[in-house]
Design brief:
- It is a single chain.
- The chain folds into 3 domains: about 150 residues, Quinone Oxidoreductase, Chain A, domain 1; about 150 residues, Rossmann fold (3-Layer(aba) Sandwich), CATH 3.40.50.720; about 200 residues, Glutathione S-transferase Yfyf (Class Pi), Chain A, domain 2 (Up-down Bundle), CATH 1.20.1050.
- Helices cover about 40% and strands about 15% of the residues.
- The two termini are about 55 Å apart.
């Protein structure tokens, strides 16, 4: 696997981050292995690059949060229950895989949220939740927030409106103020304007606010502490100025009974021990998770890769900054779902279709003996067997259909058809195959009648043909149903059509769309030749084939 690691901490922009190849880690008891899809670059990340000690001759993996799928468990109920789940992770996340504790570090993400859009699920949203919780429980009456055009700042503007919390936003530029006004911000102070300190002090008094959360530090620390009323509290949670807090007045602390405190997300979460931490995290999650998709904590991203992260980071940092979007590392390939792709084997199933989807999507895979792991990843019951049916979107479907849909979605072959329609199409294909088996078992006369032009096979094929837009089911874009049909047609070649040239030519002439789908998938480049075989008892003998030729 590939990951980013810190090789040398050396100041704010002279750090040395490298891409390195390391073995995929193995989870221990109580841990899970997560295939990472995306991870953000937060201010707390790059400020740590200058401070993290790196012993000579070693590297330190980096990252604080990200999102992906749990693909393996090291054992234990909590870890086992997470396999296959789409999750947010708090760990060293700048790599293709990460192992972390199942409890406390892994957070299931909403089903309707794209996995990559959950990358910034934790640091910023939970920080905002911590601000609001602090303001409420300590009766601060509202808050002042600096660097208010940041991602945290924009989230605060939205959530404070929802919860009717008074907020004063402090920004450097009028353009940033305009941005916040567009989000509905009522109270904004621009520090490049003359008299901003008096304006802020008057607003604080008018609105009855008793605290400030500051991401800047430096001289801003002393200024904000002075502007707060007696008994007020200044919280510093960042150091964007690059300078230590300064300008603190003794009289503010002594006679004004003001407080100077740090706010650190893990400290807030763990305050009061496990008894308080669990309900606090649950309450914060209840606020955060619904807002990740198009809500108050949805994040705008600028994407990069592991290879160009440093270049893109410096470009943004030294250019327009991060106001317009947070930098997000997308892991390559983003659609891989597990270290190994489990293959049903060369007999029946949909293994042939599955490995072709992975190859078409340029996703590495390894053939194994069964598909149990895919079903565990799908959340199906049982770990050592593939169940005969799985419920998806309220529909009971076969293991073949469910597997094709699951892998097809991960490979990006799920566009344009909703799952209910796709499952119906696959059910029709499956029913056709089942009818072939019934006719084969009913004797030569039934077999001949089945393949007649007015027989049941042609009726099924006519229905399937009508569902195809051409050249594929969904027009120009390949769908997992196309791979499913390809697999069924390959099977039918082995069952009988390969021995029945006249019948085969008749079908090709009558059902050009089906043949078009088959040829379209077959024309893709694959590293493996077709290795399907069929049990002899399922295939027509030469004598049976002769009855339909």
């Amino acid at each position: 696997m590939r990951r980013l690691a810190l090789a040398e901490p050396a100041g704010d922009s002279d750090f040395k981050v490298v891409v390195e190849e390391v073995p995929v880690p193995t989870p221990s008891e109580g841990q899970v292995l997560v295939r990472m899809y995306a991870a953000p670059v937060n201010p707390s990340d790059y400020s740590a690059w200058a401070r993290t000690p790196v012993p000579a001759g070693t590297t330190v993996p980096i990252g604080k949060e990200g999102s992906g799928y749990v693909v393996a468990s090291g054992g234990g109920d909590a870890a086992d229950a997470l396999v296959g789940k789409k999750v947010g992770v708090t760990a060293a996340t700048y790599g293709e895989y990460v192992v972390t504790a199942a409890q406390g570090s892994v957070f299931p993400l909403p089903e309707d949220l794209a996995v990559e859009d959950g990358a910034s699920f934790f640091v910023n949203p939970y920080t905002v939740a911590g601000f609001l919780d602090t303001v409420k429980n300590k009766k601060h009456g509202g808050l002042v927030h600096t660097a208010a055009a940041s991602q945290v700042g924009k989230m605060l503007v939205k959530i404070c409106q929802e919860h009717d919390v008074t907020l004063i936003n402090v920004v450097r530029k009028e353009a940033q103020a305009e941005l916040l006004r567009g989000l509905g911000a009522k109270h904004i102070v621009v520090t490049s304007n003359d008299g901003w300190e008096k304006e802020l002090k008057d607003l604080v008094k008018e609105l009855g606010i008793k605290c400030a959360f500051d991401a800047i530090a430096g001289e801003m620390s002393g200024k904000l502490l002075t502007l707060l009323p007696p008994g007020g509290t200044y919280y510093v949670y960042g150091g964007l100025s690059g300078q230590p807090s300064s300008g603190l007045q003794a009289v503010d602390l002594i006679y004004g009974k003001k407080k100077f405190e740090g706010f650190f997300l893990p400290t807030w979460l763990h305050e009061g021990g496990m008894e308080k931490m669990v309900p606090r995290i649950m309450a914060a999650s209840k606020m955060v998770m619904p807002g990740l998709k198009d809500g108050w904590c949805a994040t705008a991203f600028t994407d990069c890769t592991l290879d160009n992260m440093v270049e893109k980071f410096l470009e943004m940092k030294n250019g327009g900054g991060f106001t317009d979007g947070k930098l997000r590392i997308r892991m390559d390939p983003p659609k891989e779902i597990m270290a190994k792709v489990y293959y049903h084997g060369p007999i029946l199933g949909r293994g042939n279709a599955i490995y072709r989807m992975f190859e078409a999507a340029k996703i590495p895979y390894t053939l194994e003996t069964d598909m149990a792991a895919i079903f565990v990843a799908m959340g199906a019951a049982g770990k050592n067997f593939a169940p005969p049916a799985v419920e998806i979107d309220g529909v009971m479907v076969s293991q073949s259909q469910a597997t094709c849909a699951f892998v097809g979605a991960k490979c990006g072959f799920d566009k344009g058809l909703n799952s209910a329609v796709a499952f119906q199409y696959m059910l029709d294909i499956t029913d056709w195959g089942a009818e072939v088996g019934k006719a084969k078992g009913a004797g030569p006369d039934a077999w001949k009648a089945f393949w007649a032009e007015d027989g049941r096979s042609f009726k099924f094929l006519t229905m399937i043909e009508s569902q195809i837009q051409g050249p594929f089911y969904n027009g120009e874009e390949k769908h997992y149903v196309d791979f499913f049909l390809f697999q069924a047609w390959e099977s039918m070649q082995l069952v009988c059509l390969g021995k029945c040239p006249a019948l085969s030519e008749t079908i090709k002439a009558k059902f050009p769309k089906i043949v078009g789908v088959y040829n379209g998938i077959k024309s893709l480049e694959f590293s493996r030749a077709n290795d399907m075989v069929m049990p002899p008892q399922m295939c027509a003998t030469d004598e049976w084939a002769a009855t339909v030729n």
